[in-house]
Amino acid sequence: MKRILVVDDERQITRMLRTSLQSSGYAVTVAANGLEAFQHFEAERPDLIITDLVMPELNGLELTQAVRRIAFTPIIVLSVRDTDAMKVKALDEGADDYLTKPFSMPELLARVRVHLRRLQEPTPVEARLEIAGFVLDVAAHTVTLGGQDLHLTPKEFDLLALFLRNPDRVLTHKVLLRSIWGPAGDGQPEYLRVLIGQLRKKLDRGDGQSLIVSEPWVGYRLRADSAPE
Hints:
CATH topology of the largest domain: Rossmann fold
Strand content: 15-25%
Strand order of the largest sheet: 2-1-3-4-5
Low-confidence stretches: none
Number of helices: 8
Number of domains: 2
Number of strands: 12
Order of helices and strands: EHEHEHEHEHEEEEHEHHEE
CATH architecture of the largest domain: 3-Layer(aba) Sandwich
Mean pLDDT: 86
CATH superfamily of the largest domain: Response regulator
Structural class: alpha/beta
Radius of gyration: 18 Å
Largest sheet: 5 strands, parallel
């Protein structure tokens, strides 16, 4: 049974989340602030964390930073703060996802499932990735989608590999730029826009739906669930 740590100083929210998550088959631990949450995290090592941002003792961003120093546990932020700047900051600090309150419980449960699945997917050090219709061979530098060969430039290949290692996860502009271009990519968003555009054209299946989805002012994510099997 997967274990989820829920962190929020509003009892009504934690009660609702506990009930919904437990009814979906998860074991749930609740904390009222970031400090208490980190103590639970060190003792229990949950499989996923759902946290608010504004809390006493230790806020959600500080909790995320503390967890990221020692683990890659998926973190979903729930917050009433819906500004793009706050979303970018949370994701840059290491959060994996961000939902604005009030939120849809079915959507939250879907995102929980996505991030828990990601724990069982190939790690970046593996030489072959097989995810949702894609087969990417790092050593041979080849990739197919639905059995069709894709002819990618080195940068396009690296970008797609990064998305495949993080399916359905929002990757911020900063993370993408630094991962593909290193420190030289900082402050050069046009590099990313051009590369994303090129990759989208090569992944186009003619149905009007892009596999690479823009998260305005935040970044991009790969809709792995929409790729052909």
